[in-house]
Amino acid sequence: MEKEGEIQKMKLEKLKTVTSMEACYQGFDPVAYLRYNYTPPRADFERRNSIVPWKLSCLHRAFTEDDIRGDVLVDVGSGPTLYQVMSGCERFDRVILSDFLEVNRRELQSWLQEGKSSIDWTAYFKYVCELEGRSSSAWAEKATRLRSVVSDVLPVDVHQSCPLSPEFLHPSGADCLVSSFCLESVSHDLLSFNQALGHISCLLKKGGYLLLIGALGESFYMGAPELYIPVVPLDESQVCASLKASGYELLQLCIYHLPPDMKVGVDDITGVFFAKAKKT
Ligand code: SAM
Questions:
Q1: pLDDT grade for 1, boundaries at 50, 70 and 90
Q2: Which residue from 68, 212, 215, 246 puts its CA 20 to 30 A from 203's CA?
Q3: Which domain, by its residues, includes 118?
Q4: CATH of the domain at 146
Q5: Residue nearest atom 18 of ligand 1, based on CA coordinates
Q6: Cross-referenced InterPro entries, in alphabetical order (predicted)?
Q7: How far apart are CA 248 and CA 279, in angstroms?
Q8: Strand order from edge to edge, sheet including 70-76
Q9: Which of 164, 182, 159, 186 is nearest to 174 (CA)?
């Protein structure tokens, strides 16, 4: 009886923290978020050690080194951003974008359907074209390719055992999952992060690839002016242990250490990890 009471108390605590995380996200402002993280100095294509070019290079390398390709790629927690699927869109017949918030899904739809967006993605497309050995002038073709392969922009909740509505994905799962800065930014502790990782793994085929990008040592980030969103601070060993516990073979882990001038006051991140893992 006493044990049952403890379990109920734990469930209630979890519900409270998940609910407070959800409440935090109601104030998320895609325009501010994009400005904080996806303009210089964090997105400076003249500098190799700027965060965004580093992330784009990791994604490009991951897809090409193992020649990862297939039918379906799912991006979990896309936010208002497109960079994370600019390499993958060439290698999959169908790309599914997803986010918890309608404002973010609207931002993505607006670019997909009308070419309108709160930031100009052209320099991003050009950079990825160059990584692929194409001329930067091929950027418009890449943008067209991305528009043509994105089949859906869906609601997602990584705290649910079934994060996406099942009718959009074959029961065996996607060939590849990408997720960037989502799991640690929506989890109040390591246990919740691990559970979320377990939930999204259900979306991936056995033998499929997970490309996971995330923050290291971060306790908060700004989702709008005055909106401090709590983040579970992770270290490298926790990322490796979490992937192993969720049934992945870790193939590659790259770490980016934040240079002092990338600390622009919108978070307290110390580094970024890029993990390539295979579901066993
Ligand atoms: N992927 C983007 C990037 O690389 O910048 C956005 C990352 S942003 C830090 C975290 C994202 O998680 C937000 O877009 C937010 O709406 C989304 N999110 C919030 N709660 C979520 C949940 N329960 N399940 C999935 N995504 C969630």
A1: low
A2: 215
A3: 2-279
A4: 3.40.50.150
A5: 100
A6: NNMT_TEMT_trans (IPR000940), SAM-dependent_MTases_sf (IPR029063)
A7: 5
A8: 150-155, 92-99, 70-76, 174-180, 204-216, 271-279, 248-257
A9: 164
The amino acid sitting at 116 is: K
Give the Å distance between the CA of 64 and the centre of ligand 1.
26
In the structure, which protein residues have their CB atom closer than 6 angstroms to any atom of ligand 1?
25, 28, 77-79, 81, 84, 99-101, 104, 156-159, 180-182, 185-186
- Closest approach atom of ligand 1 to CA 163: 24
| Count of beta carbons in the 10 Å neighbourhood of residue 159 | 17
C-alpha dist (Å) from residue 29 to 16, 104, 116, 172: 23, 9, 17, 35
Model pLDDT for residues 25-41, shown as the tens digit of each residue: 999 999 999 999 999 99
Query: How confident is the model over 66-114, as pLDDT tens digits?
Result: 999 999 999 999 999 999 999 999 999 999 999 999 999 999 999 999 9
Buried b or exposed e, range 213-233, using 16+ CB within 10 angstroms: bbbbebebbbbeeebebbbbb
Measured CA to CA in angstroms, residue 41 lies from 92, 185, 209 at distances of 31, 22, 31
CA distances in angstroms from 218 to 116, 148, 184, 191, 266, listed in the order given = 31, 36, 9, 16, 11
How far does Cα 52 stand from its chain's mean position? 13
